[in-house]
Amino acid sequence: MHGGWQSARVRRRLGLSACAAALAALTAVLRFSWDDAATEGVLVSAIGTLVSVAALVADVLRGDADPAPRSAEEDRRRAADALAEAVREQWAAEARLRRLQDPEPIEVGWAPADRRLADHPENVGRGDRLPAPRAWRVEDLAAWFAGLPGRRLVVLGGPGSGKSVLAMRFVLARLAARRPGGPVPVLFPLAGWDPRRTGLRDWLADRLAADYRPLGAVLDGSRTLARSLLDTGLVLPVLDGFDELARPAYGDAVRRINAELDDDLPLLLTSRRAAWSVAVADGDVLTAAEVIELLPLDLAQASAHLERTARPLRTADGAPGTVWTPVLRELARHPGSAPALALATPLMVTLARAVYGDTSRNPSELLDRERFASVGAVEEHLLGAFVPAAFADADPRAAADAVRRLTLLARELHRRDTGRLAWWELESLLPRALRVFGPGLLSMAVLSALLLPVTVTRAVHRLTGVEDVLSLVAALVGQTLGFAFGVARLLPDGTGRPGGGPAGEPDRRFLVRQGLTAVGVTGALWAGFAYADDLRFGFRFGSVTDGWLPDLLGGGLFSLLFTLFFGTAGLSRRPVPLGLPWSGAGERATARLCGAVLLLGGAGTAGTVLLGRTGDPWTLLVGLTAAGAGTALLVSAGHRAGREGALPARPGRVVGRFAAGMARGTAVTLLTGVTACTVAGLAATGVTLLKSGAVPDLAGRQLDGWRFGERDGVRTAATARPLRGTLLVPGSGARPIAYPWGAEPPDCTIPLVPERRCVVFRSPETAFESRGGVVTVRLRLAGPSAGGRTTVAYAADLRSVLPPQARGWLAQGPAAAFAARVLPPFVAAGVLVGLVGGCVCGVYRALSVPSDTMRATGPGSSLHTDRTASFTRGGVVALLVACVCVPVVLLPGDWGGLVHVGTQLWLPMGATAVALGAWGRFAVARVWLGATGRLPWRLMAFLEDAHRRGVLRRSGAYFEFRHLRLQSHLAHDGTPAGIPPRPREAPAGPVRESGDRPR
């Protein structure tokens, strides 16, 4: 190991300093010596981007050092140790939240269950005898479990008897006794398993890969790391809640478990006694498993716990006691009363402690025999009073709001048949229409925020390229509709093969369906565009349209492209949290280097505008985008990930993923884009030719001040009326494009093209000329600078000054020639679509890794990580698309109007990357739920507060209600008539994969 100048960290810092100094010097040189400030700013940003990419390639390919080759067994052992750490942190935090050591857990006794529910004693083959019930310590049970030859145990108990707490404490006890490289106990809520469709091992592997994301890595091209850990006996499944399976599946579940058991798969299973009895009757006993049953608490145990956890007081006779003392004495005299029987479960004892833990309530109310005539009445009372008691220190209105909000969440979880509340799934609370339209609205909101530094006039005219407010509104509505359709039809549903893209790479069947949908919809929209607009003079992107309907259709086509790109990249309709792939010191250092270069380059570019060197809005936007992406990279790399992936970082991993994603994405989007655009061009050509029809011969006639003539095959339409408008001069000696007065051309100035400009003209004599249907316009420019010279310009955007009959007469020509003029821009646009789609797929492949939702320090941490990653990907996508579009912008003569496509594509791509991610969906849900008052604006703060008060618990990036019965009580309390309450004992409904419940 080297220090000083030979240290890799020192070398990187020196490299960063050199890059920063060079970039600052370049900025200074350009600032004082370059005449074109707009080009200067973009050059600074482009060079910064180039340096960042070069640094990323060089440093990541180099790596810190080639990792020493390790065996598959060593990789599995390291992964098992990382899994053990994650499980320990998860359940130790839950034990603290439940105050299990305050002052100590309620020890529940157990006894051997009915032998008819267990296997033959000779099959169980116990080593040591079952600990006596008087021990009443889970640690004793865990130690005895390790001595069982088969290491299989079934724990039975009633609702609230402590089965889930026992399972949690069992996990912690086994982890405390575990040695490095040994089996890891993992708790699996069984509610999401359908044994009639999925094998136990397959389901366990899927759950491990979903909950502990690094275990989803593919080791040998077929098995995930999770499946490898299961098959080699490095996972000890703790299956909690067998009774939560569908009742008809009980027998199938036992048979499935027996069929897949071997010496390498020990397990502990918890269930209610009634459900296990049905399973044994319908299926079989669990092979070689001991079965025990938890015993009810006796009143003395419950009384001792309540007395020890209550505030010391003086009783009426002056003796030391608590608020519980007289109540417990009365219950001891009537052990058969409803309150005494209700306190026979640890859940009710814990709720009673919480409800009567302050001075606002007195447990003596439990002695009211009329109110509490049954055990159920006592239990419902304690369940209903728990949440208000947890928020007792808040004002009454806040407590009532908390109950209402938690009831809403409980009902939503009940509707989805799950017990896990994920922030990225809160979108399900929105109306269906808003779920579809929300991403598009958010994308436009993000884009509007980026355009705030630009004046309203420039934002409307120069950046959008529309000539009136109605057209702008139509384009925005069209973009919203196109976004909604794309979200619903062009994004995958989230299923994919392990080890694929961020959300699982879409399979070939989906890509075929996506391509056919895109081709069909694009062709239909362009057919409608051609019907509503007049394309007889030819077509170029960014042209003036006839009315608002073409702008509506064009906006839909524009946003449809974005969802096509991200759907091909693998972003699903139900996105999950994603992180960035920095998994080592070298990759984080590289990310910091790239972020610093982008930040400095972007700040220098934006500074040219702020210092008054240029007023071009594109220069400011390029600089702000680069600076934003650089800041996000610095933030993402600045937080050292305390838990790296289970597998080591390998040199070139990020670059390799980018190259693979770009190659795959380019191939798919190029095929789809060229096909769709070709079909669109043919559809537009066909519709235009069909609607043209016969036109009257205007040769030798005059109409509305225009004189028409035809000579040697050249048709002319001339007028002596003065005509005003604007000329867009593309530069490079190309033919200018004429626009009528009131319609400002798009992109009058573009960095890197200094000769491009817009010029206002006045023509006292104007003549349109047509040769074989190709129409141009001759303008005799008036004014001191023009000197009466004649300019030939592109005439399609000036067609509105002609009488309607004259347009068809001038554009009349061979159909083949018309198709040859219209189709090339469409095909070229398809090629651009393929290149841009490749960039998007490459970025998402390289800069997206599934977040480890179970190892996250909390839901808030997961949310912040996804938000930072979303803005990082959005900025990088925008900059890369801008780089791809630079050659298009530099095309001589602005051929086909593709310059307009290039300038309009890059910034919305970045906004779309943010809007379609998990954080973007959550932002839409948060705004809607806050605006409607259903949930608070500071939603995560409210959920964290409920967690601190013990109402919710955290399980990685998820929230869960403290107990299933609490969630069920809130969900069914005040249920509208006609909605039957959900049965608690043995649900017979369909099993859903997301149905994890705390019990």
Summarize the structure.
With 999 residues, the protein is of the alpha+beta class. The strands form six sheets. Strands 1-6-2-5-4-3 form a six-stranded mixed beta sheet, sandwiched between helices.
What does this protein look like?
- The structure is a single chain.
- With 999 residues, the protein is an alpha+beta fold.
- Helices cover 52% and strands 10% of the residues.
- It has 31 helices and 22 strands.
- The strands form six sheets. The chain has a six-stranded mixed beta sheet, with helices on both faces.
- Strand 17 and strand 18 form a beta hairpin.
- Helix 19 (469-489) runs parallel beside helix 21 (549-569) and helix 21 packs antiparallel against helix 24.
- The longest helix has 40 residues, at 653-692.
User: What share of residues is helical?
Assistant: 40-55%
Radius of gyration, in Å, reads 35 Å
Mean pLDDT: 79
Q: Indicate the proportion of strand residues.
A: 5-15%
> What spatial order of strands do you see in the largest sheet?
1-6-2-5-4-3
Look at the helices and sheets and give the structural class: alpha+beta
- How many strands, what sense, and barrel or not for the largest sheet? 6 strands, mixed
Topology, number of strands: 22
Shape: elongated
Can you lay out the helices and strands and say which pair or pack?
Layout: H1 8-33, H2 37-62, H3 72-97, E1 110-112, H4 121-124, H5 138-147, E2 152-156, H6 163-177, E3 184-189, H7 200-211, H8 225-231, E4 235-240, H9 250-260, E5 267-271, H10 273-282, E6 290-294, H11 299-309, E7 313-314, E8 320-321, H12 325-333, H13 338-342, H14 346-355, H15 375-390, H16 396-415, E9 420-422, H17 432-450, H18 456-463, H19 469-489, H20 508-532, H21 549-569, E10 578-579, H22 585-610, H23 617-638, H24 653-692, E11 702-703, E12 706-711, E13 714-719, E14 723-729, E15 737-740, E16 757-763, E17 766-771, E18 774-780, E19 790-794, H25 804-811, H26 815-846, E20 849-850, H27 859-889, H28 898-915, H29 918-931, H30 939-948, E21 952-955, E22 958-961, H31 964-972
Parallel strand pairs: 2-5, 2-6, 3-4, 4-5
Antiparallel strand pairs: 1-6, 7-8, 9-22, 10-20, 11-12, 12-13, 13-17, 14-15, 14-16, 17-18, 18-19, 21-22
Helix pairs in contact: 1-2, 1-22, 2-22, 2-23, 3-6, 5-6, 7-8, 9-10, 11-12, 11-14, 14-15, 16-31, 17-19, 17-28, 17-29, 19-21, 20-21, 20-24, 21-24, 21-26, 22-23, 23-27, 24-26, 26-27, 27-28
